Amino acid sequence: MKLLAVSDLHVAYEENRTITDGLRPESADDWLIVAGDVGETASDIEWALGLLRERFAKVIWVPGNHELWTPKDDPVQLRGVERYEYLVEMCRRLDVVTPEDDYPIWPGEGGPAVIAPLFLLYDYTFRPEGTSNKEEALAKAHAAGVVCTDEYFLHPDPYPSREAWCEARVELTEKRLSALPPELPTVLINHWPMVREPTRVMYYPEFAQWCGTVLTADWHLRFRSACSVYGHLHIPRTTHYDDVRFEEVSVGYPREWKKWGRTDGWLRQILPVKP
Ligand SMILES: [Fe+2]
Ligand SMILES: [Fe+2]
Question: Sorted alphabetically, which SUPFAM superfamilies does this protein's record hold (predicted)?
Answer without folding.
Answer: Metallo-dependent phosphatases
